[in-house]
Design a protein that fits this description.
Strand content: under 5%
Number of helices: 4
Radius of gyration: 17 Å
Structural class: mainly alpha
Helix content: 40-55%
Distance between the termini: 13 Å
Number of domains: 1
């Protein structure tokens, strides 16, 4: 998603064609919605509370991969 949002890599082809980019994304979402292996999951985080956590607790949530 990070590469898609910034038109990087193979997603560079969408840089000058926003309607095509939106259709591609819509088709991806429709595909995931139909596929039973990918259930919908949601989450929210209170960023103020998260920022107040000790550094050692926040490190467990890092995902720089």
């Amino acid at each position: 998603m990070k590469e898609f949002a910034q038109w990087k890599s193979e997603f560079g082809q969408f840089k000058d064609d926003e309607s095509r980019r939106q259709e591609f994304f819509a088709e991806l979402v429709r595909t995931l919605y139909k596929e039973r292996r990918f259930p919908g999951v949601g989450c929210s985080v209170d960023l103020t509370a998260f920022a107040g956590l000790p550094k050692t607790c926040k490190e467990a949530f890092r995902n720089d991969a």
